[in-house]
Design brief:
Layout (H helix, E strand, L loop, with lengths): L3 E5 L7 H14 L2 E8 L5 H7 L3 H25 L6 E8 L2 H11 L4 E5 L6 H6 L2 H8 L4 E4 L3
Parallel strand pairs: 1-2, 1-4, 2-3, 4-5
Helix pairs in contact: 4-6
Length: about 150
């Protein structure tokens, strides 16, 4: 039923319930899981040039951050007993909500499993949450995991 599941994470424990659910679905349906982590602080080449920062220094900082994020995602999935599940780890720059939608659409995802703790700031009440953005823009079902 679900061949490809996308599960975004901000690398905090609060995302564990969504990751656990993705693993359960993967074991049940034989689904591939794509674990996505976004970094809005990453800059593209044009932004680096505009700020006139050393591209070598900042590239190394971003590379180190990306390596640490990937290691943390892998360790988390091992801790949550992903076992033999097929897992792809993706890192993206930019706003998480846009990256989630882009990855879901480009990769033919069948299901997005996302954690939400609801609106927790004035900005969320005005602009909406990441979860709301994703629900309103992806073409596949979205399973929203609320806080316990």
């Amino acid at each position: 039923m679900f061949k490809h599941i996308l599960c975004p994470t901000d690398l905090t424990r609060r995302c564990y319930p969504a990751l656990k659910k993705a693993i359960q679905f993967s074991h049940h349906f034989g689904s591939k899981i794509t674990v996505l982590n976004c970094h809005p602080e990453f800059m593209n080449q044009d932004e680096r040039q505009m700020l006139r920062v050393s591209t070598d220094d900042i590239k190394e900082t971003f590379r180190q951050t990306a390596l640490e994020a990937r290691e943390k995602m892998q360790a988390t999935m091992n801790k949550l007993e992903a076992g033999e599940a097929e897992i792809e780890y993706l890192l993206r720059e930019g706003k998480p909500q846009k990256a989630i939608v882009e990855v879901a659409e480009k990769n033919g995802v069948d299901l997005v499993i996302i954690y939400t703790d609801g609106p927790d700031s004035i900005r969320d009440f005005v602009a909406g949450t990441i979860t709301e953005y994703v629900i309103n823009r992806v073409s596949c079902p979205v399973l929203v995991i609320p806080p316990k």
